[in-house]
Amino acid sequence: MYSRQTALIIGAGLSGIATAAHLARNGYQVTVLEKNPAPGGRCSQLNRDGHRFDIGPTLFLIPEVFAETYAALGERMEDHLDLRRIDPTYQFHFDNGTRLALTADMNAMQSQLEAIEPGSFGGLLRYLVEGHQHYQLAVQRLAGRNFYRLLDYFSPQNLLLLFKLKGLIKHYDNIGNYFQHPYLKAAFTFQDMYLGLSPYDAPATYSLLQYTELADGVWFPMGGMYRVVESLVWIAQAHGARFVYNTPVKQIEVDGRRASGVILQDGSHLSADVIVANADLPYVYRHLLPNKAKADRLERMKYTCSAIMFYWGVDKVYAQLELHNLFVAGDYRASFDRVFKDYSLPDEPNFYVHAPARTDPSAAPSGQDTLMILVPVSRLGDAAAQDWKALQSRARSAVLRRLADMGVTDLEEHLKFEVSYTPRTWQSMYNLAKGAAFGSINHNFLQVGYLRPKNRHRRYRNLYFAGGSTHPGNGLPLVLTSARLTAERILKEVGVPQMSRAFTSIPLRIATEYGDSE
Ligand SMILES: Cc1cc2nc3c(=O)[nH]c(=O)nc-3n(C[C@H](O)[C@H](O)[C@H](O)COP(=O)(O)OP(=O)(O)OC[C@H]3O[C@@H](n4cnc5c(N)ncnc54)[C@H](O)[C@@H]3O)c2cc1C
């Protein structure tokens, strides 16, 4: 009598959903257990009074990774996502009212850059060449490959790679080789924030971000980023995966060298051949597994920052705002030091405003606006006083003040409702360690590649991990890569059920062995 291998996945974040889809398509009987009432995790959606907000991600980058995921599942991305290329990608607003629209149109870039700093267009061209080299090397030789042993990572070849990727040079120091004007230095380092890093700490490697935005483009799926979640859930379900919501896992049960099952919050027990934890890894070690020594070690790693969010439904359209708007603080250095060194909120913070109805009118009722505001702030902890109510109110005032400077003076009068998140919300809503929203473990050079937590537990050989706090890291393209690496490894180590051999489909582009998490 034939029986299918079973898999339990803890968490329906994008990485959990994609892992479920890969395993279900390859014959596993998959059950996804999610604590919240709907799938998506940080890539969730909020709908209220005709306003539709993406909770977290709004920048759809590196579309080929998404396309690869759909292809591995036997689908075409274009049948599921109506993608629009956004150009200019985003609008920078500097403190003296200067604007800069980043665009792939090099003539437009030339005139804007030269107006800010004569001669700087040549700097941009050189910077893009460097970003391209970093992108190719990092994707092919760091994110897209496996390291079996510590010595592989610290091999002479890899040390040369570290040198070529400028892994030991700070991004903000390196940008001085290309631009002198502080506005341009800010415009081409700010993107480190997407990784939850300060450009004063991040390695110069991450010039690859600016390159990929201008060369590969910034895209927008009509209907919002949640279309990615909905379509992958649909595909996973079509292959038989079952999603169970409002079902927090309380504990992973272990027996010798195996994870035998999970205990749910209501006390019930489920068992499976394979368990995949998509929930944030430091949380999993701290709260779901018995060995607290590893949890202590993870706690000592470097974490990303967090974000105070405002989701505003307004009954007026503010034409001053584009789809993506970045407001840069006058004191750029202090805006990061207050977050990363003082564990607080700067007096004058940087912030981002997303107005999806500019591209997709279905995001707001006609004649009204849907605004998402992201203010980077410290993660939880390490501060004498983190009074989140006070910090939230300060962030709100700073945003309104800055918007008023550009002529948006009556926003409060037109506010229909406000939903706001602090790092405490990120922690309680998605179980993110320290409320660190972008990772949670950060991407400095000592926490990537072999040195990032692995996708299998060292002791419990059938317990796997997928998501932003494992290899290769955070951001939708990387968590989809994480799902693929984890699913490939499970298929190789635990096996492919007999009945599915005919349609095994994950392209084994890279070897699947990978080190274990302790
Ligand atoms: C504000 C913000 C903006 C961002 N912007 C971008 C962007 O523009 N572009 C981009 O590419 N990326 C962006 N990101 C990053 C991106 O959102 C994440 O990398 C990605 O969504 C993480 O997916 P994940 O599956 O690893 O984890 P998560 O989304 O955190 O999913 C983990 C899931 O596990 C569930 N869970 C936790 N504990 C339990 C438990 N005990 N039992 C059951 N379920 C549990 C959680 O509820 C959650 O659903 C952004 C992130 C944030 C916070």
Plain-language structure description:
With 518 residues, the chain is an alpha/beta fold. Helix content is 34%, strand content 18%. A seven-stranded mixed beta sheet has the order 7-6-15-16-17-14-18. The chain has a five-stranded parallel beta sheet with strand order 9-2-1-13-19, with helices on one face. The chain has 17 helices and 19 strands. It starts with 5 loop residues before the first strand and ends in a 25-residue tail after the last helix. Helix 1 (14-25) links the parallel strand 1 and strand 2.
- Order of the strands making up the biggest sheet: 7-6-15-16-17-14-18
Number of DSSP helical runs: 17
* Global geometry: globular
User: Could you give the count of β-strands?
Assistant: 19
Largest sheet: 7 strands, mixed
Q: How big is the Rg?
A: 22 Å
Oligomer: single chain
What small molecules does this complex bind?
A: flavin-adenine dinucleotide
Q: What structural category arises from helix and sheet content? A: alpha/beta
Q: Residue share in helices?
A: 25-40%
Percentage of β-strand residues: 15-25%
Q: List low-confidence stretches.
A: 501-514
Distance between the termini: 36 Å
Mean pLDDT: 92
In brief, what are we looking at here?
The chain has 518 residues and is α/β, with parallel strands linked by helices. It has helices at residues 14-25, 63-72, 77-80, 106-116, 120-143, 150-153, 156-164, 171-175, 182-187, 207-215, 226-238, 281-288, 292-299, 332-340, 388-405, 423-430, 476-493, and strands at residues 6-10, 29-33, 45-48, 51-54, 83-86, 90-93, 99-102, 218-221, 242-244, 249-255, 258-264, 269-271, 274-277, 306-314, 324-327, 351-354, 369-377, 415-421, 463-465.
